[in-house]
Amino acid sequence: MKISTMRFLDRLVGIPLCAMLTLWHRAVRLVAREHDAPVRRILFIKLAEQGSTVLAVSAIQRAIAMVGRANVYFMVFEENRFVLDLMDLIPPENVIAIRAEGWLGTFANTIAAVRRTRGLRIDAAVDLEFFARSSAALAYLSGAGRRIGFHGRGAEGPYRGNLMTHRLRYNPHLHTSETFRFMVDAIELDPTDLPAVPFAPAKTGAEPPPFRPASDELERVRRIVADAAGTESFRPLVLLNANCSDLIPLRAWPRDRYLVLARRLLASVPDLHIAFTGAPVEGPAAERLVQEIDSPRCFSLAGRTTLRELLVAFMHADVLVTNDSGPAHFASLTPIEVVALFGPEHPSLFGSRSPRSHILWAGLACSPCVSALNNRETPCRNNLCMQHIGVDAVHELVLRLLGEGARAGRSSKVGGAPQPERAVPLVQVTWPPVGEAIKR
User: Fold this and answer.
1) Domains of the chain (ranges plus CATH)?
2) How far apart are CA 150 and CA 196, in angstroms?
3) 429, β-bridge pairs
4) Is the entire prediction scored with pTM above 0.85?
5) For an engineered disulfide with 117, which of 88, 142, 225, 375 has Cβ 3.0 to 4.6 Å away?
6) Are 275 and 316 in contact (CB under 8 A)?
7) What is the pLDDT of residues 86-144, one digit of tens each?
8) Under a CB-based contact definition with an 8 Å cutoff, are residues 52 and 128 in contact?
């Protein structure tokens, strides 16, 4: 199901549903258990956005420390569960996956998921979906005596009823990983004291657990890449993720920039290969890019791999260039260097904290324009924030990363002429922050 469809349903169905559940709750005070009962089982609800699931690693680890690995559950759409399976933080059987199969099918699968959570006798439900109404309703219907989530006060955030026992105030100055961790810590707070919180947010710089595919899987995907490249010697390899999900189309970097970047990289590094990645539906667009570049060292992997195989392909590559999207985050599970291009959202909130993540952000006065408080929606239709990220800056950064990889023995020798000076600085965001700037 498309994100745009889910948002429409979240408004059309979610608002009246949350209102009715709120009235029901006020009338009968029907809760599974009181909030001061011991917490033995914790449920996370994060239906969409694979990248944000990676940012929840510290929160999941904190929940495991509280109740044990076997007692932590996660509700997610089936299409997004693969990230949880890759990280292997909780048992696979503890992932409550909802299959999106049209309106009626999704509704039936959601009811089945609710029945399962109620049968598990969940003690605490942590709603990681910020201000979505559907997740608020699911948290309430789970039967959990403690329901932790964000509650809009005044003009802060969209309406989602009054279904949480622990009503938190969303802090737009915390990194998302810190926000998710703080929500788990809030389980132990007295809800009558909220939204005041007596502690500082825990620092969450820890990397997610590394992805470790089997040797036969590594070889199978290496063969896929070699067949697409037409050669066994495809290293060094740069992957370009030129697509953008329909979640926030404004995240996309202009198509012509990828063309120019690919041509410059191929000219700068004589033995470099470049591959475009993407879902099967994006295969034709990726092939057109390859045809326009017209180089035997440029090929497409779009539609040739599953999402899991794409992560294995990351382990056969040196650098990934992508917009702010799922691959920018789950690539942190692998050794690949990532150049992530940010625009409508702020990297200090949603950027990966992996030391292999290198973020470029123009930092225009209008950016960021989407946030949890406006339900990730904006009237902007002209993403100047992405257009102001020039090819020169990305080209320079990729060459530097390839050079560092060559010195570490990961790829071949990198060359190329020095690039011209640019006038307007781009902020390069790294973790930990170093305040470095790259001229554009």
Assistant:
1) 3-193 (3.40.50.2000), 216-439 (3.40.50.2000)
2) 13
3) 359
4) yes
5) 142
6) no
7) 999 999 999 999 998 877 888 899 999 999 999 999 999 999 998 899 999 999 999 99
8) yes
